[in-house]
Amino acid sequence: MSQGPQPILRHRETVFTGRVFRVERDELTLSNGASTTLDIVRHRGSVVLVPQPAPDRIVLIRQYRHAIGQWIWEVPAGTLDSGEAPETAARRECEEEIALTPGRITRLGAYYPTPGICDELMVFYRLEELTPLTHPVSHDADEQIEPRVFTLTEARTLLAQGEICDLKTALALSLV
User: Fold this and answer.
1) What global pTM score does this model have?
2) H helix or E strand, kind and range, residue 97
3) Which of 33, 52, 90, 124 is deepest in the core (most CB within 10 A)?
């Protein structure tokens, strides 16, 4: 696919820095000569897990998402630690969120969920040959997680009925 002319960056400033992301404000000159200002969310990236204890099963987690004020069913996921490789993060998040260690990790793809405002890249992994941890799990302070095994049919029914409202989970179910 051919690329068009890139905008010219005239000025960039960081307007917010948080625990997981920062926001930059860019002043640009577009290829047509117009000037614009864009706010961009900069994110380290994340991994999305598709844990499958059997070929026709998937582990979903139920957790409260304050931004939308709801408890939802979703696939486990997490932000990369600084400098962390995505596959390493996938193994760590599997252990932290559902107390299982994957014997096999397969990359399914990588996608930008909101490229109009954010540079987060979500890398999707299928996790198989899952074995229970031999030590207790400690969740992040802001996490209340309830894992549950569903058949793929049950999970897809939840999606069709609107019980799964999370886009990464909808995509994950289409990848397996």
Assistant:
1) 0.92
2) helix 86-98
3) 90
